[in-house]
Write a structure and sequence with these properties.
The chain is an alpha/beta fold and about 210 residues long. The protein has a single domain, classed as 3-Layer(aba) Sandwich (Rossmann fold). A 7-stranded mixed beta sheet has the order 3-2-1-4-5-7-6. The radius of gyration is 16 Å and the shape is globular. About 30% of the residues lie in helices and about 25% in strands. Bound molecules: S-adenosylmethionine. S-adenosylmethionine binds next to loops. GO terms for molecular function: S-adenosylmethionine-dependent methyltransferase activity.
């Protein structure tokens, strides 16, 4: 994963990844996005497996999670959810799956962490079958010259050096829009964070 610190950094990053509580704004949108998925589903950057409980029983789930310190938590979560789960330890910039072989790719709060979001989105398109869907929930850069964007621009160089390597001001919505999907639909919401700031998010689907 990106972010500094090698093995120790990954261990620390793994401790910071939640597997239980999440903001109600996330819990509100995820059932609509994740419950209808079926067949071969690849989740990129699943963290500790916080989304596993949202999938239906017919899903064959593969996680692409580069932080090995999260794998045991994912396996336990998959067993609790009654899902057949497979883990790939690589990065989403190069997904170990054949072209057009997957019904859905899921990523929540992950494009802020990857080294190359355009490359990851190209891989998502490659592995999806025609008509397959990319399901996403991401925080995004606020519009330029807003108070939130100024804070994101200041915090981003600091946060990307911490374990987890989050790019707070990444223009992820624009990256998804230009990636080459047939149809992209998403809703937006703001999540209150510290210092009176509200972090803009998008949640939706893009169809190949
Ligand atoms: C902020 S956490 C989000 C975890 C989970 N998806 C969630 O919604 O809570 C970001 C996750 O992306 C993973 N990650 C970082 N770089 C990655 C990459 N290049 N490919 C795949 N996953 C990556 C991290 O290891 C971490 O599990």
């Amino acid at each position: 994963m990106s972010g500094r610190g090698g093995g120790a950094g990954q261990r620390l990053a793994a401790r910071m990844v939640p597997d239980g509580w999440e903001p109600p704004q996330y819990a509100r949108v995820k059932p609509r996005l994740l419950a209808p998925l079926a067949g071969e589903v690849v989740e990129i950057g699943p963290g500790a497996g916080i989304n596993l409980g949202y999938y239906g029983p017919g899903v064959r789930w593969t996680g692409v999670e580069p932080n090995p310190h999260l794998h045991e938590r994912i396996r336990r979560g998959a067993a609790r959810a009654g899902l057949s789960a497979r883990l790939i330890p690589g990065r989403a910039e190069r997904i170990d799956a054949a072209d057009s072989s997957v019904d859905a790719v899921v990523g929540t709060l992950v494009l802020c962490s990857v080294a190359d979001a355009d490359r990851v989105l190209a891989e998502v398109l490659r592995v999806l079958r025609p008509g397959g869907r990319y399901v996403f929930l991401e925080h995004v850069a606020a519009p330029p010259a807003t108070r939130t964007r100024r804070a994101q621009d200041v915090l981003s160089p600091v946060l990307r050096r911490l374990p987890g390597g989050c790019r707070y001001n990444r223009e992820t919505g624009a990256a998804i829009a230009r990636a080459g999907f047939g149809a992209v639909e998403h809703d937006g919401f703001d999540l209150p964070v510290s210092f009176g700031l509200e972090l803009p998010h998008i949640a939706g689907t893009a169809v190949k």
